[in-house]
């Protein structure tokens, strides 16, 4: 129990240090190395059975629904495109779940894309914790990714001009 209490104290100190440093005041490499060091220290203090799986970092702007004018002004590259799209209410990565009737060979699920192919994931019919991934391409006949699963076909749509791909 002492090791767990120590781990919690370390985590609290690490969070306090991170919150005191203003965003952007240190370089990305230094920030990531600092996070990795703190996580390594935390892992040493954890009792057996706990394992460090990784640290996910993101900008504050990407993690919240509220954007300030400075968020977009200071962002660059793909992050800037994502924030500009978010400000307009557009998901530039088109990550929405597709809600459509079951796709048969005669009436397949139409997956839209501004590209000539798209990656599609479907749950395993016997174990829904497993996802099977496959690609569908423009001009192909309806494709079934798993035996007994539904059929998919790609429907090409015009590029919106803000796809986030380069």
TrEMBL record:
SUPFAM superfamilies documented for this protein: Rubredoxin-like (SSF57802)
UniProt keyword terms in alphabetical order: Metal-binding, Zinc
Domain of life: Eukaryota
InterPro entries assigned to the protein according to its UniProt record, in alphabetical order: Cyt_c_oxidase_su5b (IPR002124), Cyt_c_oxidase_su5b_sf (IPR036972)
GO CC aspect terms: mitochondrial envelope; respiratory chain complex IV
GO BP annotations, alphabetical order: mitochondrial electron transport, cytochrome c to oxygen
GO molecular function, one term: metal ion binding
PANTHER family linked to this entry: CYTOCHROME C OXIDASE SUBUNIT 5B, ISOFORM A-RELATED, CYTOCHROME C OXIDASE SUBUNIT 5B, MITOCHONDRIAL
UniProt protein name: Cytochrome c oxidase subunit Vb
UniProt source species: Elliptochloris bilobata
């Amino acid at each position: 129990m002492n090791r767990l209490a120590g781990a919690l104290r370390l985590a609290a100190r690490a969070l306090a240090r991170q919150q005191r440093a203003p965003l952007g005041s240190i370089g990305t490499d230094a920030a990531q190395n600092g996070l990795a060091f703190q996580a390594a220290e935390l892992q040493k203090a954890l009792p057996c059975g706990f394992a460090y799986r990784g640290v996910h970092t993101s900008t504050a702007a990407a993690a919240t629904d509220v954007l300030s004018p400075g968020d977009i002004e200071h962002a660059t590259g793909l992050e800037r495109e994502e924030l500009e799209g978010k400000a307009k209410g557009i998901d530039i990565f088109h990550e929405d779940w597709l809600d459509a009737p079951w796709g048969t060979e005669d009436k397949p699920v139409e997956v839209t894309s501004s590209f000539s192919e798209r990656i599609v994931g479907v749950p395993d019919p016997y174990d829904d914790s497993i996802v099977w991934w496959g690609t569908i391409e423009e001009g192909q006949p309806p494709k079934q990714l798993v035996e007994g699963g539904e059929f998919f076909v790609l429907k090409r749509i015009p590029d919106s001009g803000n796809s986030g791909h380069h």
